[in-house]
């Protein structure tokens, strides 16, 4: 592990996991951002912890310091590269526009979180961080995973899109001929990275040959 006093990371990216199905997308995104040497600020809602336990074999602690240690070990992060914040940590940098700027991804994004952000509820740190991203005109990518979408969901997505938020549903394509679930997960993660302007080799871009990019788990 690198010394936190000497390690130099690329600009931070905030990743929030909420209570929709698709925890694998958010966990994989954290891995890839770490591999790209970005500092990663993580928030995981109480419902998301339940989803992670249901959908994966992963057990993550709720306490922020222990969560950061667990995610760092899982992703191979350097010391201090992954930081985690609790739901009411109002001193976190993401809680204010005067804090350090960061692009933000809510992945997966529950329709409850979608509604809260669209209406400016800010009842917890994830919602407040998204509110800050909107008002400061920072990059905010929301990855809803629901089916079917109701008119309420669609109206909230339209309202947020008009504010500059990227609505990126967890709906992987198949034109890259996925061979595994990991390939489907990486399809969505690759699209998120494209929105963040982060180079990757998860899958070939349209028009590239399959051999020029990797869809394996080594990032």
From TrEMBL:
Q: Which residues form the Flavoprotein domain?
A: 13-196
Q: Kindly give the InterPro entries that the UniProt entry links to this protein.
A: Flavin_trans-like, Flavoprotein, UbiX-like
Per UniProt, the keywords (alphabetical) are:
Flavoprotein, FMN, Prenyltransferase, Transferase
- Which residues are listed for dimethylallyl phosphate binding in this entry? 175, 191
Name the domain of life.
Bacteria
> Can the keyword Transferase be found in this entry's annotation?
yes
**Family indicated by similarity:** Belongs to the UbiX/PAD1 family.
**HAMAP family given in the database record:** ubiX_pad
Name of the protein in question: Flavin prenyltransferase UbiX
Q: What is the lineage of its organism?
A: Bacteria, Pseudomonadati, Pseudomonadota, Gammaproteobacteria, Oceanospirillales
Its encoding gene is what?
ubiX
């Amino acid at each position: 592990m690198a010394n936190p006093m000497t390690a130099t990371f690329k600009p931070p990216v905030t990743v929030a996991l909420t209570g929709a199905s698709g925890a694998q997308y958010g966990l994989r995104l954290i891995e890839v951002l770490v591999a790209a040497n970005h500092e990663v600020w993580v928030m995981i809602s109480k419902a998301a912890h339940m989803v992670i336990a249901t959908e994966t074999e992963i057990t993550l602690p709720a306490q922020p310091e222990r969560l950061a240690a667990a995610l760092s070990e899982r992703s191979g992060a350097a010391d201090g590269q992954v930081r985690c914040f609790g739901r009411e940590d109002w001193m976190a940098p993401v809680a204010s526009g005067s804090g350090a700027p960061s692009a933000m991804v809510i992945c997966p994004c529950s329709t409850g979180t979608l509604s809260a952000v669209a209406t400016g509820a800010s009842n917890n740190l994830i919602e407040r961080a998204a509110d800050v991203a909107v008002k400061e005109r920072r990059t905010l990518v929301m990855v809803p995973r629901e089916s079917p979408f109701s008119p309420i969901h669609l109206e909230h997505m339209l309202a947020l899109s008009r504010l500059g938020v990227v609505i990126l549903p967890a709906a992987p394509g198949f034109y890259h001929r996925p061979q595994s679930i990991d390939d489907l997960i990486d399809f969505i993660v690759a699209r998120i990275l494209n929105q963040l302007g982060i180079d990757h080799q998860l899958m070939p871009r349209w028009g590239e040959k399959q051999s020029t990019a990797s869809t394996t788990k080594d990032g």
